[in-house]
Amino acid sequence: MQLNLAALVAPWLGWRISMAAIGRFQKGAEVFHAKVVDGELFRLRGDVFGSPSFDRAATPRKGVRTLVPVLPTKVIAVGLNYADHARETGKELPKQPLFWFKAPTSLLPDGGKIEIPFPKHRTDYEAELAIVIGRKIRNVSPTQASRYIFGYTSAQDISDRTIQKAESQWARAKSFDTFTPLGPYVETKLDPSELNIQLFQNGELRQNSNTQHLLFKPHELVSFISAHLTLLPGDVILTGTPSGIGPIQSGDRLEVRIQGLAPLVNAVK
User: Fold this and answer.
1) How far apart are CA 185 and CA 151, in angstroms?
2) CATH number (domain holding residue 197)
């Protein structure tokens, strides 16, 4: 596989200069949100989905643990949203967004370890761009939908293929604890229309695409889903994975790099 040096470097440069990355952290018993600027944390005061203020002085990072950036009531996954992924799985392109629910208990923060419950099953990585909802939303048009998006973050939709192929619905195969790595931060000022999306397994490039190839764009997904159910602040929508999916095993190091976002890194055990 040919490696595009510019494509590899660009995601790292983008997030480092961002002034709009919001993370969720824990120090001792205290949990707080903070803006992340050049690696420094500036605590948020007020509702993260409202009009918060931020401390002017940075909070020391010593003893601070990064958590999943939001606590959603729902995690919604979208399937077959890249044509090349549909082809590699032998499935027809959907005529409308195909979505299902993943358990919120499957969320895993950056740095957390993915646990494989059935080592004899094939379990795959899937790098995805995730939408974070910022306002209560029900039945809005695609042109209105962007107003309700809080921001974007990196995710994985870890999948037990053995179970998935044996069942008509995919929730169980994708909802085991640790099967939804998410984070580390939410980028609140990001144009999702043309972002490089990549996954590295033990340093080897496995997935390499761009969000311009999404069949259904983020605002279209939000509109479609909101026509069927109410979305609440903090809810997460995974937009689908490109081609290049593959199996994972204990000892693997998985890294999702999406242009403009901080890298999401998780080990497998």
Assistant:
1) 10
2) 3.90.850.10
